[in-house]
Amino acid sequence: MSAEPDPRTGDCRNQTSGRLRTVLLSSAAAIAVAIVVAGPFGFAEGTISLAGPAPAYAAETPPGFADLVAKVKPAVISVRVKIEEQNSANNNENNEAIPRNSPFYRFFFGPNGQSKQVITGEGSGFFISPDGYAVTNNHVVDHAKTVQVTTDDGSIYTAKVVGTDPKTDLALLKIDANKQFAYVQFADQRPRVGDWVVAVGNPFGLGGTVTAGIVSASGREIGASPYDDYLQIDAPINKGNSGGPAFNTDGKVIGVNSAIVSPSGGSVGIGFDIPADTAKLVVDELKQKGFVTRGWLGVQVQPVTAAIADSLGLNKAAGALVDQPEPNSPAAKAGVKVGDVITEVNGTPIKDARALAQQIARTVPGSSAKLTILRDGKTQNIEVTLATMPKQEEEANAQPPQQRQEPSPEQHLGMSLAPAQDVEGTGKEGVVVLGVDPNGPAAQNGVETGDVILDVSGKAVQTPSQVREAINQTKSQGRHSVLMRVKSPQGTRYVAIPVAQG
After folding, report:
1. d(Cα 135, Cα 128) in Å, to the nearest integer?
2. In order of start, what are the domains of the chain with their CATH numbers?
């Protein structure tokens, strides 16, 4: 029997006992058609008609998807796996495959660390070459002891896993057989929101099921990894559709079905696809090396909010604000400093911290990248040679943000302060936050008791009076927020706190 689906999301790998009860794959919403009023013998006098000539775009609307499906369906496969039995998250010697800080950990292990004891699972996939290379989701084949694929004509083959990339939830399979397989190609361009999309897969183990809809949104972040960049589609997708393709009307793959949002475990019209351009890059690396390497800059960054932009005197809230370059990192060696705002990489505008992570990750390690930064109100370029992302850095990036606790006390900006050198265990630099008013501006912007304020508006501070002076100077410049660099157990970050004028 299938396990009860997650109350918020539905895993799209169909399986005999619940293993991945998540949003890993999906989409929903059948195509809406016209509603008419029919009489006893068909369309009667109540039928509604539209006056005037048909709009010009009507001729572009496909009459159906039968020809498209006939062309692509032979390349779509059903993927059936047998999963390694596991006793507990603590005792399983292979458990390092899903570290505790992985965003997918909770989908595999219960709150007490016990595994779900999944025996078999089913997903979808598709051939990308005639010699038997096929794409599916990482979560479909993760921990699989054996992988079998069934083609559209009912033939069954054993597949080997060439490589996987948990960060993008992609896996590459290879089927060795003395024959040429039907295959499909990735699209060269991303679809537009509103474009038609046709999904083919193996929902509930039925195999070869076709659904259609539109692209609902692009660039979605669902909290799976720092590299989230999903297409949202509404073509109905359900359990077992994981790893299947989503096609445009030219029969090219625009995305790999990966996740759904669903209160019931079934399709409700919100599904997420890994875009073709991402899949193409990852699959090429998996084919060549069996794993994916990503460029590494080595900076802790955060988005530039409207308040931070105001405090820095920027015209708009865009870019990635450098909290701290990592010691001996490419960024540190190239001269990137605390407080720099990275606005472009190789001429590509950086919208926020996530965009920076994606852009750097796509760049080949060892290659040179040109960073455009804002420093002290001036634009300058820095050349940096990227390194390969260390494994521990990837795991840190994948770790979800920690929930912050909210204490009490008060004073300037809702904080009571003391020099760090006067407080045991806090070091000699900065000003320690002794207490925070939960209703004050500091607490509302994430400042906690125990945090250490290192500088205010770019000036190092050692006493509470220096903090006040820096705030007063900010107010005299007509700015509505003051920017503080704050150190906490989670690392160093910038916080923009609103200040009252007058």
Report:
1. 7
2. 1-39+72-290 (2.40.10.120), 295-398 (2.30.42.10), 415-498 (2.30.42.10)
